[in-house]
Design a protein that fits this description.
Glycoside hydrolase family 55 protein; about 5% helix; Pectin_lyase_fold/virulence; 64 strands; mainly beta; ten-stranded parallel β-sheet; 19-stranded parallel β-sheet; hydrolase; about 750 residues; Pectin_lyas_fold; 6 helices
């Protein structure tokens, strides 16, 4: 930069030989007395050292010399003022470069330094150079540092110290030395040039704004130092951070040009502070929908409380966190907070616990356990004044007062403070929990949270946790879930990959390794497809847990094309405050189609589809299991389906639309079928043919419908005559009601193909 070139300025003062009428005795401002009429000064045309020069006798405490031409002061530009002087007679004065400096309106800025370093003359005739550099940046070598209010100046010299001495002054030189500071930074605007201090104490916000305004499309430079910024700052263009910023948590930093973790890490000086500022900015910038970690790792020493970080609790715009790793650091407190309280539950108010002392000590997001409490029930909200807690799901244990335990897990990314957070997505994020922390807690309310191509690596307790209704439309696509409890026996594992409380989850193409449960799913309308979840161990006749737990009765859900490995699907009504059936829908609304089921080394009583009714009167209505492959490796099992009657049983008289068909069974003794096709051979003449379904009907159900009876070959009586009559059918026969009788008008023998259903289709 050169002001003579860029601004067309003539910086060089005229020589004294051209006249003294442009040299002021005071400030240099128009109308001030000049040296042309000064009795204490004169032009010397033939000094042997200086050629022409100005001779001045110091007659006052401060004798001033100012060029009356006003020079503009430009942020980022640096001027050097110098002159050669020598003492001629009398007492030696001190000599310094000096200036009058004013703002844009012409008002003198008396708070700014007006003189450079003073030089004491020590011998007669010795030539001494007096020099000072002036500019708006606190750079090395700058003698007079002005702020960006400085806009105009008159330069010259001051003589101070004892009076009476006589000195001679060669022509004053003013030159632009900006290139000495910015030759290697062409096209860069330095915040120091606009008044930033970088001392960690001064608020440099105004200086940054001035530099940003001046930069335009040029790159902003934040040089070495610690720059305190006390309020929101937006940098729209490119920026290079060699120094770091110190900002309060509430202050926003928005880097529009380079909205990435490396840029924020450079700005704040470490990964955690940079990540927090960048993620915070994501919720405020109107120019970006994604905060890109650029493959970077952030070592978290505490959970990221997203609600506190953002500062508001309602967000409904598509925002993406992508391409990086959040790692639970070795330091930091990730311990579970456990509390116990006495509380009262009333099914009439099914989501509320009441009568709780010191309810403020129970964290929102804590998991509830106790008698009659289903899996994955969390504290959704609390009312300190009323002493109540709002739960994510009802309890099934009925009314009563008891001790409940509350466990608050610690999550790398905790969104629980949001009353509504919608359309938030994590993409290509690895949650490296390392067995120290859980991964993500969803907001209390909201919808369409998405996890795409993410890794959930060894969460201590949970992968994705829903504590309320914020899982509406949850999408989990192409993610990896690796348990922290892989070495344990299957029955000893407690970690859970994810849970839902609301409807319409899409769980697709994921892989989950050795969890207690892959998913505990409340709500309905789920699509679960293309996943591989497995949970076995090396035990002989090992016990297995459910891979999927579906807790609403009428699900309108599909489980399609999954690889279900050493675990099972469980249907439960454990979120029902009144688990006895009293009307409406019961178990069903589910299709299980085209899946691979496999189990190895399991006990014979292992099953892949298990109903677990709580209470009485429940039944199955609308269950279609078709086109699946069931296969055991090693031990055989009895059957693929079962009813867990620990807390209740089914009403087999009410089965409707229950279909098990076109499945392949390998290593299964009693393949499940409904419609069940029985080839019955009656080798003796009888009026009653007892047709046994052979334990093939689903869930130990009853033979309630015979949809067809077809004679294969002719029916014959005792005299070998062909019988043309058709039998009538008696259903629900035998001690287990799983047989049907064919009643003939006369004793008959032959072969019948009988199709039996466990339900009434209408």
């Amino acid at each position: 930069m050169n002001m003579a070139v860029t601004q067309g300025l003539d910086l060089m003062p005229s020589p004294f030989a051209a006249g003294l009428d442009v040299w002021s005795q005071t400030t240099g401002r128009p109308g001030t007395p000049t040296y042309d009429s000064a009795a204490f000064a004169a032009f010397v045309p033939s000094d042997p050292d200086f050629d022409g020069c100005l001779e001045v006798q110091k007659v006052s405490a401060t004798t001033r010399l100012r060029w009356m031409v006003e020079l503009p002061i430009t942020p980022g530009a640096y001027l050097r003022v110098r002159a050669r002087v020598k003492g001629m007679a009398g007492v030696f004065p001190d000599v310094a470069v000096a200036a009058w400096v004013g703002n844009q309106g012409g008002t003198e800025l008396t708070a700014l330094p007006a003189t450079g370093p003073a030089t004491a003359l020590t011998s007669y005739g010795e030539i001494v150079e007096i020099s000072a550099i002036i500019g708006t940046g606190a750079r090395a070598g700058v003698d007079m540092v002005w702020n960006t209010d400085a806009r105009r100046a008159h330069f010259g010299l001051n003589l101070t110290g004892p009076t009476g001495g006589i000195i001679r002054i060669d022509d004053i030189i003013i030159e632009d030395v900006t290139n000495a500071y910015s030759a290697d930074l062409l096209g860069v605007v330095d915040v120091l040039d606009y008044g930033a201090k970088g001392d960690g104490t001064t608020d440099d916000h105004a200086a940054f704004l001035a530099a940003i305004s001046a930069a335009g499309t040029r790159r902003l430079l934040v040089p070495e130092g610690t720059f305190r910024i006390d309020s929101d700052l937006t940098i729209p263009g490119p920026v290079t951070f060699r120094g770091t910023l110190v900002m309060p948590d509430s202050a926003l930093l928005i880097l529009h040009h380079d909205f990435t973790l490396p840029a924020y890490e450079a700005a704040l000086g470490n990964d955690v502070a940079g990540f927090r500022k960048g993620l915070q900015a994501l919720f405020y910038t109107n120019q970006h929908i994604a905060f890109d970690m650029m493959g970077g790792r952030v070592n978290l020493t505490a959970p990221i409380d997203l609600r506190s970080l953002v500062g508001f609790d309602n967000a409904n715009v598509h925002l993406v966190l992508q391409n990086g790793q959040l790692r639970a650091a070795d330091v930091g407190n990730w311990d579970t907070v456990t509390t116990t309280r006495v509380a009262t539950y009333n099914p009439a108010n099914p989501f509320l616990l009441s009568g709780i002392s010191n309810v403020a000590g129970i964290p929102v997001g804590a998991r509830l356990s106790g008698v009659g409490v289903g899996r994955e029930i969390y504290v959704r909200a609390r009312n300190t004044a009323a002493g109540t807690l709002t739960l994510s799901q009802p309890l099934h244990g009925g009314a009563g007062t008891q001790n409940f335990t509350f466990e608050r897990y610690q999550y790398l990314l905790d969104c629980s403070g949001f009353s509504n957070l919608s359309n938030f997505e994590c993409r290509d994020i690895e949650f490296l929990c390392r067995g120290r922390a859980s991964a993500v807690m969803l907001p209390e309310g909201g919808s369409i949270t998405r996890f795409t191509d993410c890794d959930f690596d060894r969460p201590k307790d949970r992968g994705i946790t829903s504590i309320g209704r914020g899982c509406q439309g949850l999408t989990v696509d192409r993610c990896q879930f690796a348990s922290s409890q892989m070495p344990l026996r299957a029955q000893d594992r407690t970690v859970i990959a994810f849970n839902t409380n609301n409807n319409d989850a899409k769980i697709r193409n994921n892989r989950a390794v050795l969890w207690a449960h892959f998913g505990v799913m409340g709500g309905t309308g789920h699509i679960i497809t293309g996943n591989h979840f497995f949970a076995g161990d090396d035990e002989a006749q090992g016990i297995r847990q459910a891979g999927l737990v579906l807790t609403d009765v009428n699900l309108k859900t599909t489980i399609t094309g999954n690889y279900i490995d050493n675990c099972f699907i469980e249907l439960s009504n454990e979120y029902a405050p009144e688990p006895n059936f009293s009307g409406g829908f019961s178990f069903g609304g589910l299709t299980v189609t085209g899946n691979i089921f496999i189990a190895s080394g399991v006990a014979p009583w292992f099953n892949w589809i298990v109903l677990r009714p709580l209470g009485s009167g429940q039944f199955v209505q609308g269950l279609h299991v078709s086109g699946n492959v069931f296969r055991t490796v090693g031990n055989r099992i009895d059957r693929v389906d079962a009813v867990d009657t620990t807390f209740g049983s089914l009403d087999y008289t009410r089965f409707r639309n229950v279909i098990f068909d076109n499945n392949a069974y390998n290593g299964v003794d009693y393949p499940t079928e409904s419609p069940c096709v029985v080839l019955h051979d009656q080798n003796t003449d009888a009026t009653t043919w007892v047709v046994d379904t052979g334990d093939k009907l689903p869930f130990g159900g009853w033979a309630r419908t015979v949809s067809s009876v077809v004679m294969e070959g002719r029916a014959q009586d005792a005299s070998n005559a062909t019988r043309y009559e058709m039998p009538y059918v008696e259903i629900t026969q035998g001690p287990n009601s799983d047989r049907v009788n064919l009643r003939w008008p006369a004793a008959t023998r032959g072969r019948a193909v009988v199709t039996v259903r466990v339900d009434r289709p209408l």
